[in-house]
Protein 1
Amino acid sequence: MSETVRVDDRGPWVMVTLNRPDSLNAFTGEMLSALRSALEAAGERPECRAVLLTGAGRGFCAGQDLSEVDLSPEAGAPDLGRTLETHYNPLIRLIRGMAKPVVCAVNGVAAGAGANLALSCDIVLAADSARFIQAFSKIGLIPDAGGSWALARLVGEARAKALAFTAEPLAASVAADWGLIWKAVADDALMAEAEALTARLADGPTVGLGLTKQAIQEATINALDVQLDREVDYQRRAGRTPDFREGVNAFLEKRVPTFTGRA
Ligand code: T3D
């Protein structure tokens, strides 16, 4: 296991912690590879039914580690597209494509690709003191790690452009008011609330939740007719799971359902 990414197995779910607190968990290449391996393993393990992502120390993640970029004249012009193709794009696709809930607890500042990594997760909780910063324009870059896509969809073009052009920090409470994240939580309550939510989701009907995730993501690009057909397909699959049977039986028997998450 890497030191820069900690994985705590909590039985039905895992907590993945970005762990370079002295640099506000800024991403090195090694750390990005470790994060991808940790998430791939969580995605592939059927016993793992939800993931919680957070950061160690006072920050969530300050984006790409800027001390790793070689700007010496000998190195020539840097190819930042390669970092995206090698690391960030596969990570974002992995999280969005994972057929189980990914919760993010933003414990402190989230800047650059760190902010956009958080926004790629399914449910984002943030500490009241956390801030979201589209830091890219300060160094002449564009919002990456899915940021241009997520911002435009979540908060609309006007707010997306202002956040990206100005790199102004956005407080967690405003991010929640704008619909950028699910909610802001008191600092000292963040982890307990995020862990309880992840545990609850891990106890849920995993196949149905995975299909729900896919349906909602596709809805942002599909026309209604296409989406209605998707719902037919996904509901057919959800209706064939043991968890549907269990949910209905539990309702009729006036008891709490015990979902297994099995297909
Ligand atoms: O290949 C490619 O590069 C393309 C991909 C790009 C993706 C990106 O993410 S680009 C955006 C990169 N991130 C940034 O530009 C953010 C830079 N950081 C900041 O602006 C500030 O640190 C924060 C606003 C995030 C937090 O400010 P503050 O005052 O709370 O903390 P600080 O004192 O600035 O930082 C604390 C330490 O973390 C400090 O180290 P020190 O002085 O204590 O030894 C600082 O240098 C370090 N740190 C913070 N961010 C980064 C970093 N070190 C390396 N890279 C960073 N991104």
Protein 2
Amino acid sequence: MINVIRSPATHLKEVPTLKRPLTVLKGIGPKRAQLLGRRGLHTLIDLLFFLPIRYEDRRRISPISETRHDVPALVRGMVISGGEERAFPGRRGLFRIIIQDETAPLELLWFNYRKAHLDGYTTKGQTLTAYGRIRLNRGKRQIIHPDITLVGDAREQVFLGYFPVYPAIKGISGQVLRSLISQTLAQGQEANMEILPEETIRRLGLPRLGEALGNVHFPPDGVSIDLLNQFKTKEHRRLTFDHFFYVMINIVMRKMFSRERTGPVVSVPKDLEDRLLNYFPFSLTRDQLRTIREIAGDLAIGRSMNRLLQGDVGCGKTVVAAVTSHMVIHNNWQVAIMVPTQVLAQQHFAYFSSLPRSMGFRPVILTGRLKWSDRLKRYEKIRNGEYNLIIGTQALIQEGLSFARLGLVVIDEQHRFGVRQRSLLDKKGENPHLLVMTATPIPRTLAMTVFADLDISVIKEYPKGHRPVETFLADATQKRKVFNTLYQRLSKGEQGMVICPVIEGSEEEDLKNVVEMHERLTKLFEPRFRVGLIHGRLSTDQKDRVMEEFRGGRIDLLVGTTVIEVGVHAPGATMMVIEHPERFGLSQLHQLRGRVGRGSRRGLCVLMVSEDSSHESLSRVKVLADSNDGFEIAERDLEMRGQGELMGTRQAGAGELDLGAVFREPELLTAAKEEAQCILESDPKLALPENHRLRKLISTRSIFPTD
Ligand code: ADP
Ligand code: MG
């Protein structure tokens, strides 16, 4: 699971002691500061909110003979022997220390190590404490790359008890990080930090911020390890509440503002619904038509529309966006369509360019690859109104571009939730209508809170001819059969995808698995078919190129991570294999499988479950095989509290909600909204941006995110 809590941290930037750079800490010189900076850690506050991703239970020492294969254990024993071993001169060696307690011996092994460091632990008769996952290797117990300490060492303090594990930072060991955080916490306690109004803390019975941060970084022995690892201790919940509260303040405030905002008046042609028959080669579904009527109602009354269009993958949201754009452009306004990726921008540009001229579109695309001079030319033609439909990624459209008459902004495939994009629009100083589209099915109750500042339209009906993706569970024994099916599909000229999870905290290992899977499939399928690879470590350009090749059919089989998820479809893709589905959230799996079977052939999705999956996680994943209704699946996800590890929107930044946290703690979200409402409604003047009291209460940056 991912735990990103950033907005409250921005508030603490007002506290002078915590604003200081990390170099004030013992043990940090310019070099380490630079390494930490690369990870976005610059000040003491940043470090305070850099939270553990999981906890190890190192409270009890086990007799070595009672440790079990593949289970982590804390053991203590006397050193029997120790030293480096090399099979051949010049080859890489290994380092082995053997310890023993009253019950059994244990081998500690290292393949990557600093010899000088480990040499310090080899003196016979010393007592070592070691933690790690036990392996039974031909009857011998081993730990590979254990964490060790000498009994009586000052380090034991942090080594024992609950042990926090942080996201890896290149060049900074966990040990160094923990020491830095404990120094920072001490400084924080002195600063007596708090960011919530006193009344809120009392009313909800929340722990104070200093205490919460202290216990989340270094939990006391009494709490349950399960609560810790689910981020459900009262201290974790306090931090989650803060995160929600800051986003909710923004959302409630936008709702209060938007009541009074005047927007472009757009008159709707009387014969619109007849015209649609000429514009599209099919008739619109009832849900599409209803949505269009709801939108037309908003556009006509002279207030800015703020509407969310929620609809499962493939239900035809783009058509609704096209009709809405047509209405706005028909009234001589411009439309901007913002999408998360360049490939999606290209896909939309091609689509809108293909629509009949009579719809009135003069589309242009803005991509990062444009030469500067070309981009300036396009900017100019947007400024003077020659182009009336501007399609691009969010970054491009926001960046210094001005419009002649911007009447509507469409945000497509919004999968980062919160108020950030919407707040950025406010700064444009105009009040264009806003249509946000998302395929993330959030249960209605939650949507009303998450999108409190938006009116919601839902499309439930699929276009005629839509066939749901067939979904099966398979285990390792069926792998061969699965790959055979894949081979057959590719032989027919169809395309396939294989998705592997990458989770924060085990990125290195996970990424290795993706690359290995790619190698394996390349061996199996090339040269007859071309196998591509895509993951988050590639540059945006590289990713776009791979996606384009896949869309264009030049790659037959694409192996990758969830970066494939975002809105793009390859019409030829008909089969998807998902590795370790139990590590994903259900809604995310549903979105993923929606990427296949969008052409004429029905899609097939195989969920490759591990043999050692628990009964619970199997029955959870099975929901996918049984249902094709994104909303129903989201409801189930909510019931099960979004247990998939990947549920979170990893990059929740200032003004954005971590969707994982939303599914985990729906009640806290409601409480946060109520608190925000209570504060703002008790004194509506607080909601004015120029009001200093609110600025004091909550940080300027988190209310009006600018970064
Ligand atoms: P999404 O909601 O996932 O963005 P799209 O807008 O991309 O879905 O639509 C999916 C496919 O369905 C497209 O190929 C589109 O042309 C087609 N489509 C949309 N509406 C209809 C309809 N009313 N009848 C038939 N096909 C439709
Ligand atoms: Mg779409």
